[in-house]
Design brief:
Blueprint lengths: L2 H34 L3 H13 L1 H12 L4 H25 L5 H4 L4 H20 L8 E2 L2 E2 H23 L2 H9 L6 H33 L3 H13 L1 H12 L3 H25 L13 H21 L4 E2 L3 E2 H21 L1
Antiparallel strand pairs: 1-2, 3-4
Helix pairs in contact: 1-2, 1-8, 1-9, 1-11, 2-12, 3-4, 3-9, 3-12, 4-10, 4-11, 4-12, 4-13, 4-14, 6-7, 6-12, 6-13, 7-12, 9-10, 10-14, 11-12, 13-14
């Protein structure tokens, strides 16, 4: 068995471990929402989004400390943002009848808007990183400080907005299963989070080895392969939430994960001691950030316009636009890596 095959097997095993933990998260998160009287949007945005983003966090920490692969760390974050938005295509395809954008609450526009602000700011700082215009605090860039502040503002604003429509939480909670106790649900969530963390920590090591053996850029590997693997929890959890009838939890999980993903950049920066992280990677990652910004804009259009037309009664033009942008970005990253 060749070394490359072994690395691919390790990569696949980590991905399967991450994928297996997803359904447990969705079911027990809904139970926690019922017990706590929280809305499905808030649970999806904060609890699920934070936990399903643990692979990105583990990948980032491992990439900048163990694997010494900052390109993979940053590529995985922005690639995960694009992949999360691309997963709305899967949700739209899985929903029969009217499109997922017509079933979703327009409150998700606030999350998507803050996502544009955070992703756009981080992408801009990468593209101008070589100019040296961003001050530093030791080895940490001022960009990371701003990212943390923006994330706090975003979550606080969304929480306050949710408080105005909190009466919907009782209706959503009534649909959630209640046979499992709150403590049991929390234990299941913790166990699933641990499984996700282990798989995510080992992913970048195998990904870096694959990139070296295949002679392709680490940025492409991080943006496409690692990002796809680390977003498996988001896919599994969102699909499970959709099967449970909670479209809003599914969408909130994806949009909330993008907010948390950008926060991960600040964590990675604090652990990368060779200077500000965003100043140390290729500006090409800015194109992925721009793709995520454009895709977020498309999602906002879908939530506002709420289109009825579906191609072959299967998928709407909003989803086609999202898929096209995702493929275009993957092609750009591939061309830049060879």
């Amino acid at each position: 068995m060749t070394g490359l095959m072994i690395q691919w097997l390790l990569f696949g095993a980590c991905a399967l471990l991450i994928l297996a933990a997803g359904p447990k998260l969705a079911r027990n998160a809904e139970i926690i929402a019922a017990k706590r009287g929280l809305s499905d949007e808030w649970i999806g945005l904060i609890l699920l989004a934070s936990i399903t983003s643990l692979p990105e966090l583990a990948v980032g920490i491992s990439s900048v400390t163990v694997a010494n692969a900052p390109e993979i760390a940053v590529g995985a974050v922005f690639g995960a943002c694009v992949f999360n938005l691309g997963m709305l295509v899967v949700l739209d395809f899985a929903v029969r009848g009217e499109s997922v954008y017509r079933r979703a609450r327009q409150a998700h526009i606030l999350s998507a808007g803050f996502g544009i602000m955070l992703i756009g700011f981080a992408g801009l700082m990468i593209m101008v990183g070589g100019l040296g215009i961003s001050p530093t605090f030791g080895h940490i860039g001022a960009t990371s400080v701003v990212i943390v502040l923006l994330y706090i503002i975003a979550t606080r604003a969304i929480y306050n907005y949710e408080a105005k429509i909190r009466e919907s939480a009782a209706q959503e909670a009534a649909r959630a299963p209640t046979a499992v106790s709150l403590s049991e649900a929390q234990m299941w969530v913790a166990g699933a989070a641990a499984a996700i963390l282990i798989g995510g920590f080992l992913l970048p090591v195998s990904a870096a080895n694959i990139a070296d053996k295949m002679a392709i850029g680490q940025g492409f590997v991080g943006t496409v392969f690692v990002a796809a693997a680390t977003t498996l929890p988001e896919l599994a959890v969102s699909m499970a939430a959709l099967r449970q009838g909670s479209v809003n939890m599914a969408i909130a999980n994806l949009l909330g994960s993008n907010l948390f993903n950008i926060l991960i950049l600040a964590v990675e920066d604090s652990l990368y001691f060779d200077g500000p992280l965003l100043d140390s990677v290729s500006p090409i990652h800015g194109s992925t950030a721009l793709a995520a910004v454009v895709m977020s804009g498309v999602v906002i259009i879908g939530l506002l316009y709420r289109p009825e037309t579906r191609l072959f009664r299967a998928v709407g033009w909003i989803s086609i636009a999202l898929f096209t942008i995702y493929i275009l970005n993957a092609y750009i990253m591939y061309i830049s890596s060879i």
